[in-house]
Design a protein that fits this description.
By secondary structure, the protein is an alpha+beta fold. It has two domains: about 80 residues, SH3 type barrels; about 210 residues, Fumarylacetoacetase-like, C-terminal domain (Fumarylacetoacetate hydrolase, domain 2, Alpha-Beta Complex). About 20% of the residues lie in helices and about 30% in strands. The protein contains seven helices and 18 strands. The strands form three sheets. Strands 1, 2, 3, 4, 5, 6, 7, 8, 10, 11, 13 and 16 form a twelve-stranded mixed beta sheet that branches. A hairpin with a 2-residue loop joins β1 and β2.
C-alpha cells in the first residue's frame, strides 16, 4: 500500500495511491462507506493509529474496487499537489553517514569506512515535497550536492529495541535526497548546518507500507541528474542494516511514530568526481528506489 499526503482545492488529505495513477481520498471514502470521520488529515497521526489505520485503508480500497461507482472519491495524481509524506516532522530526521563502503572511500579512503553507525540529523524545516524546487543558496555555497537514500518511517514507540525485533517498529519506506552544502559541512566539522539548509531534504513522493516491501535490503537505488545516472547502488550493500540502525539509535533515544531515518547513500555523489560535479541552477535530480517510486526535484 502506497500512501500520500496531498492537497486539492485548498484541502489537505491522506490518500491511497492506486495502480492506475489515481489516488483514493481516504477521509471522503470513510465518510461515504461507513459514515465515519476517524481518519486524520496527516500521515503522522494515521501512523499513530497503527494496524487500525491499515485495516481501515484496506477495507476502503476493497469497497471501492468492488464497484464502478464512487468515482468522485478518486483523483488523478496529476490533478493533486503531492506534499511530503510528513511535511513537518516532529523532530529532526535521523541520518546515517558513510553507510556504503564505496561512498565512504570516495569521500576519503579505506580508513573512512566506519566501524560504528555514524549519525547526524537534518532539521524539520529542511523538508520539501516531490516536485518542489531546491534553493541553491548561492550566498552560502557553490558546493551543493545530492545524496539519494532509502528513508525508513518508524511506526511505533520504542526504546532499547533488540536487533531481532527492530523491523517490527517500521511503518514503511520512502525516499530522501540528503542535499548537502559540502563547504559548510567541512567548515563547521559538525554536519548540521551543511545538511539543514531550507529545502535540503526532499522527501517522498509516497510512504510505502512495509507490507509492500518484502525485503528492504534488496532494493535498487538510482540517482540521475539531468537524466544522467550518477548513483547506482543496492541496499544489500549497506554496512549497517536497517535493523541494526534502528536498534543502535533506540538504545538511549526513544523512537516514536513518524520518526524518519535516512539510511545512507551509495557512491556517485557530486563530491566524489574529479573534478567535483555539484548541483547548479536548472538541474533536475531524480531518485528512484525499487517499489518505492521516484522523487524528482529541480534546482531553482
Amino acid at each position: 500500500m502506497k500512501f500520500a499526503a496531498a492537497r486539492l482545492n485548498g484541502r489537505t488529505f491522506i490518500g491511497l495511491v492506486l495502480e492506475d495513477e489515481q489516488i483514493l481520498d481516504l477521509q471522503r471514502a470513510e465518510k461515504k462507506f461507513f459514515d465515519m470521520d476517524t481518519i486524520p488529515a496527516n500521515l503522522e497521526d494515521c501512523i499513530k493509529d497503527g494496524d487500525q489505520f491499515i485495516s481501515q485503508a484496506q477495507l476502503m480500497e476493497q469497497r471501492f474496487k468492488k464497484s464502478d461507482e464512487h468515482q468522485e472519491l478518486v483523483y488523478s495524481l496529476s490533478d493533486v499537489d503531492l506534499l511530503a509524506p510528513i511535511p513537518r516532522p516532529g523532530k529532526n530526521i535521523f541520518c546515517v553517514g558513510k553507510n556504503y563502503r564505496d561512498h565512504a572511500v570516495e569521500m576519503g579512503s579505506e580508513a573512512d569506512i566506519p566501524k560504528f553507525v555514524m549519525l547526524f540529523s537534518k532539521a524539520p524545516t529542511s523538508v520539501i515535497a516531490h516536485g518542489d524546487l531546491i534553493d541553491p543558496h548561492p550566498h552560502l555555497t557553490q558546493e551543493l550536492d545530492y545524496e539519494g537514500e532509502l528513508a525508513v518511517i518508524i511506526g511505533k514507540k520504542g526504546k532499547q529495541i533488540p536487533v531481532e525485533e527492530a523491523m517490527d517498529y517500521v511503518f514503511g519506506y520512502s525516499i530522501v535526497n540528503d542535499i548537502t552544502a559540502r563547504n559548510l559541512q567541512a567548515n563547521h566539522k559538525q554536519f548540521l548546518l551543511g545538511k539543514s539548509l531550507d529545502t535540503s531534504c526532499p522527501f517522498g513522493p509516497y510512504a510505502v507500507h512495509k507490507s509492500a516491501v518484502p525485503d528492504p535490503q534488496e532494493l535498487q537505488i538510482e540517482t540521475r541528474v539531468n537524466g544522467e545516472v550518477r548513483q547506482s547502488g543496492h541496499t544489500k550493500d549497506m554496512i549497517f542494516s536497517i535493523a541494526s540502525i534502528i536498534s543502535t539509535i533506540s538504545q538511549g533515544t526513544t523512537l516514536e511514530p513518524g520518526d524518519i531515518i535516512a539510511t545512507g547513500t551509495p557512491s556517485g555523489v557530486g563530491k566524489g568526481f574529479n573534478p567535483p560535479r555539484y548541483l547548479k541552477s536548472g538541474d533536475m535530480v531524480e531518485i528512484s528506489i525499487t517499489g518505492i517510486g521516484t522523487l524528482e526535484n529541480g534546482v531553482n
